[in-house]
Design goal:
CATH superfamily of the largest domain: Zn peptidases
CATH class of the largest domain: Alpha Beta
Bound molecules: zinc ion
Shape: elongated
Number of domains: 2
Distance between the termini: 28 Å
Strand content: 25-35%
């Protein structure tokens, strides 16, 4: 009798765990924590990514995963990047502008604490280095107290707009060459933040202002921000579940946990879709595969530095703490909120990944019923890329449709996540892994 009771209890608890592992309640819990103000947007300001790494490690310990890097789960590395901390403000002709709504600093701006005159310049002039030199020679008076003001909101020529944007992104190339202290770009909408061009020291102020607010010539703008160019020490968090049959070979599940951090003390980028969602899903999968181990060992790697240009995944592959010949498959999870229109699998049709993709399509038709499981050729747009470059079987899965939060914006919050399809997405991924990578 006792044996029957114990067996029933074991069966019940394993059923409960199966349900829990794919339950969006746990997912919501992770998202809320990862996007909370205590994580500072998981970026480089206020060491947000270190706080997030510690949280992930705590969850992995709780679930019962062993460290893959001894003794503390962390694979440490670092890179140069900008970090904006402290007060950020702007006033235009005496009127206070609202951070992010009315104005923003670029993530690679130099620090600013001064008043400047806005000196209008045509986009075509700014985009042409020779014309720009001439413009500077003509306007030498007070150039050191002026920010060039370029209104892109009215510019219809896409090529010119692209050229000006590119110049802004790579302003560090012009360090020391121009006397003006920087640029203000008039825009319809504040553009998304990206750190891929914030890894070099930049000597210029770069700020965006809603163009409709700049109403007169010779406007005065007062700008304040502290943006330090630092060597940022960070870490990938690595943990594993031993395989049930071939423990010396590995399936790797990856997600980047870093995001854009903060624009000073008042504006935070929660990064729910990008990529608290993939991080939370990977934690959920850790719970599931802990209870239902695959034949091969499952290695979970939570990368930092993705937003600065896949720094964590490139370091992981370069560091080669794992023998590549032992890697059977890599599943990278990035941007997993929503999913009303299904999922996309990047690098789905390579010789070494197509079995996984075909299996997902087959099972989706039979059971999971996502609107679409779309195949996309490889693109080096997330952390699967360094693995693909090494010839390893790696795919990147992201969702399509069904969420309202912005992208790389403060509105990317858990409230806008849209998790109705979460259960079906994650159970389809589990079934795909079990089929191709060997279940219990
Ligand atoms: Zn991103």
């Amino acid at each position: 009798m006792k044996k029957v009771v114990i067996a029933t209890l074991v069966l019940l608890s394993s059923l409960l765990l199966t349900v829990n592992a794919q339950d969006s309640v746990q997912m919501r819990h992770y998202l809320k924590d990862l996007c909370s103000p205590a994580m500072h947007g998981r970026g480089y300001a206020y060491n947000g990514d270190a706080i997030a790494a510690n949280y992930i490690r705590t969850q992995l310990k709780r679930i019962g995963l062993a460290p893959f890097v001894y003794p503390d789960y962390y694979e440490r590395y670092g890179f140069n990047v900008h970090a904006m901390e402290g007060p950020v403000s702007a006033t235009l002709n005496g009127d206070t502008l609202r951070p992010w709504e009315d104005f923003a600093f670029a993530p690679h701006t130099r620090s600013a604490n001064d008043e400047f005159t806005l000196l209008p310049i045509e986009p075509e002039t700014l985009a042409d280095p020779r014309a720009l030199k001439e413009f500077c020679n003509k306007n030498t008076r007070h150039l050191d107290k002026s920010l060039l003001y370029v209104d892109l909101s009215q510019c219809e020529d896409k090529k010119t707009v692209d050229k000006v944007n590119e110049m802004c992104h790579f302003m560090h190339v012009w360090n020391g060459q121009y006397e003006f202290p920087g640029l203000v770009i008039g825009v319809k909408e504040i553009p998304v933040w990206s750190f891929s061009y914030a890894k070099s020291r930049c000597d210029y102020i770069i700020a965006y202002v809603k163009a409709g607010l700049v109403k007169k010539r010779n406007s005065k703008i007062q700008l304040l921000c502290t943006n330090e160019y630092i060597f940022h020490e960070t870490q990938n968090v690595c943990a594993f579940i031993p395989g049930s049959a071939v423990p010396d070979s590995f399936i790797i599940i990856t997600a980047h946990y870093d995001h854009l951090g903060q624009m000073g003390e008042d504006v935070m980028f929660p990064g729910c879709h990008d990529n608290a969602s993939g991080t939370a899903t990977a934690l959920d999968l850790a719970q599931y595969f802990k209870d239902h181990p695959l034949r091969y060992s499952t290695l979970f790697v939570f990368f930092s530095g993705e937003e600065a240009g896949l720094m964590g995944s490139f370091f992981f592959v370069r560091d080669s703490i794992l023998d590549f010949s032992k890697i059977k498959f890599v599943l990278n999870l990035d941007l997993l909120c929503g999913g009303n229109d299904g999922i996309t699998v990047v690098n789905a049709k390579a010789d070494n990944t197509k079995d996984f993709y075909n299996e997902l399509v087959k099972m989706n038709e039979k059971k999971h019923k996502l609107k679409e499981v779309r195949a996309r050729d490889n693109a080096n747009n997330s952390d699967h890329a360094p693995f693909v470059m090494k010839g390893l079987p790696a795919v990147f899965v992201y969702t399509m449709g069904g969420r309202t939060g912005g992208y790389h914006a403060p509105s990317d919050t858990p409230e806008n996540a849209g998790l109705e399809h979460y259960h079906r997405i994650v159970s389809l991924l589990i079934k795909g892994m079990e089929k191709v990578c060997g279940g219990m």
